[in-house]
Amino acid sequence: MKRRVICCLMSAVMLLMALTGCGGKTENANGENAQVEGSEASPEAGAQEEAASGKTNLRIAVNMDAPGFCPYTSGYNVSSAIVVRNVYETLINMDADGNLYPGLATEWEWGEGNMSVILTLREGVKFSNGEDFNADSVIYSLKDYRGKTAVGGEGESLYDFDNMKKLDDFKVEIPLKRAGSDALITLADQMYCICSKQAAEEFGADYPNNPVGTGPYKFVSFTSGVGAKMEANEDYWGGAPVIKEVETVLISEGSQAEIELESGNIDLVTSPENIEVDRIKNGEVSGLKVLTLPSALVKNVWFNFRQEAIQDVNVRKAICCAIDKEAIVDVAYGGSATVANQKIANNNGAYDPAWDENPMYPYDVEKAKEYLAQSAYPEGLKLTIYSDTTPSEVRIMECVKNDLEQIGIELEIFALDSNVAVPALIAGEEDDLYVAIGCTSIGYAPGYLKNASPDMTPNWGKWDLMECDAEINELYEKALATTDTEECNQLVKEAIKLELENAMAVPICYPVGHMTCSDKLEGIIIDGGNSVYFLKDAYFTE
Questions:
Q1: Which of 132, 207, 245, 304 is deepest in the core (most CB within 10 A)?
Q2: How many Å is the maximal CA-CA distance in the chain?
Q3: 506 in Cβ contact with 409 (< 8 Å)
Q4: DSSP class of 159
């Protein structure tokens, strides 16, 4: 399932930031966000203005409609995220290498016992409607407004927003509900953007469709089935963007989007087909380039442990051995991925190459049959698999269906629109398996509490129904509590080993993301946590 939708409703990914010491102030990253492959580093402001002699409007092809523009509930749907991440801002930002740098907060430090985060806020910032940004804005956004959404209140497992403290007009303290050295890096996620109290009260329930933030762009309009429009925030605290108008255009077919790109009607395609990417890389199309996105993702087939058959470890091991991952990489991704045998990104500090070099469950149909014979279902069984209608995920499900038929498991596929699939997976009443992205983090070890924690809401797979989960969860909690990076990485490696031994999921591949665009478009910047692009420094050369 498209990673941005999945990750939002599973709650924010728990990520561990390397720390410099107990309670000490963190060092802010001085560098800008890393550029995607194919574009040069952003020039300094003066040089950028000189270079930006091209057009000042940007048209972006997206392949799905936007469900809204609330940073807390709209998910990581690309159509929503483009607007959300350029209209709103977070307190802290993260670059493509996993480094933190200032956003609406200029400094941060740990409170007593590392059980709170103290943030110094940027002064002189205004929302695009003229409202002043200050400590009250942060408290309203995260405690009052976000707290009323599905991901706030009881759905918030890390921050204790109800007990936030205003230390002065530009300093706040956010207590934590648990030991959480992931607390800083998680604040870079769009689910912790800061919204306008004035606009939220003015628009009421319609605020998600009329977003107002402090970002470099202002929302103009949205037409379902067509797209959204933004215009430059000329009073933006970081300087007005060079590109003055941004428009998303809904084009569901990747091949059609590429035709529009080649004809000049579109400047950027967010989800190109692999064949189109290859054409541009091979020089078959002039005037275009491919941008390669930094990735911290693993595509997995997940188990729903509410189902009796899935609780049988030999059924799970049989499924693990029966799936031909190399074929999936070719069929679903056209080779734009590598096989994964652990559910942590291969650019993460806790990644262990040994599991990919010598997989615990290599593709082996005969071994899969042996496992199934040892299960409570030696004669075979029927299962269901769910995902949304993203083409790569539909292809994965089709491949898995064909593979499992070889060992006597009949698989029924359900490819649903995201707004139908997500509630179904949260309820967990029908699915046995589901296909989804697992987000980790570039450079830093994650805590998979969204899977392992019995307190996580919603808990899609209900890992806590399995006896081994208590030990797995304990290791992740220790990893989140430590301030030592190496200790954290080792704890995560131990947890992943236990997950593999108990076949808790089927890692499939490490996807490589691409965008295609005009070769005159420069300066798009990638957020390392969610691969969301910021447009404030984008410009066209002549």
A1: 304
A2: 71
A3: no
A4: B
Three-state SS sequence of 410-462:
EEEEEEECHHHHHHHHHHCCCCCEEEEEEECCCCCCEECHHHHCCCCCCCCCC
Which helix (H) or strand (E) element contains residue 469? helix 469-481
Residue 46: what residue type? G
445 phi, psi to nearest 5 deg: -75, 140
pTM of the predicted structure, to 2 decimals: 0.75
Asked if 102 and 28 touch (Cβ cutoff 8 Å), the reply is yes
Q: State the burial class of residue 392 (Cβ atoms within 10 Å of its Cβ: 0-12, 13-18, 19+).
A: buried
Please tell me the distance from the alpha carbon of residue 283 to that of residue 333, in angstroms, as a whole number.
Answer: 20
CA dihedral 195, 419, 401, 334 (to 10 degrees): -50
- How does DSSP classify residue 319? H
Strand partners, 35: 525
| pLDDT tens-digit series, residues 208-228 | 999 999 999 999 999 999 999
pLDDT digits (tens, 9 = 90+) for 305-362: 999 999 999 999 999 999 999 999 999 988 888 999 998 888 778 889 999 999 999 9
Within a 10 A sphere around the Cβ of 210, how many other Cβ atoms? 15
> Which residues sit opposite 386 in a β-bridge?
414, 434
pLDDT given at position 213: 98
SS3 4: helix
Residues of the chain above pLDDT 90, percent? 57
